[in-house]
Amino acid sequence: MCVYQQEFEDLSALLCEVCVLVFSVTDRRSFHRTAQLRLLLREIQPQTPIILVGNKSDLVRTREVTSQEAMSSAALYNCLYLEISASLDHRTPELLECAVRLARGQSPWPPGTSAEDMSCGGQRESITSRAKRFLSSLVPRYPREREVGKFLRQKSRSCHDLGAL
Fold it and tell me: The organism sits in which domain of life (predicted)?
């Protein structure tokens, strides 16, 4: 990973395996600054994976940069996009795990998940529909499944531990 500080305007000597650019979703200037940095990074190191991170996702009312705007900007530069809240420690482990996976040349998301599952944009599924989906997975649809019980046949899932990478 690389850390950019304003003193280092010359990025030609910068070598990194993954670059994480963080901006505040409550400050449009920081978003524009990351766009400038992405241009510089793409000129100097076109193959380096870039993760664009929108911080302060918990401050919804003071938001100046929408999720859709940030996602389209990230797609324009072929970057990954995540929204986190560092103060609440929301999705920061996913960011670290994604950066480590990219540095190792692996897929940025854990096996079995997609970018849509991990990125934080667009409409979120309501708690009611998530509960319905969960309960429908427990209740069998056919009489034969009632005997065996779908719930008891499910395989356990291991946790996504950074140490397991």
Answer: Eukaryota
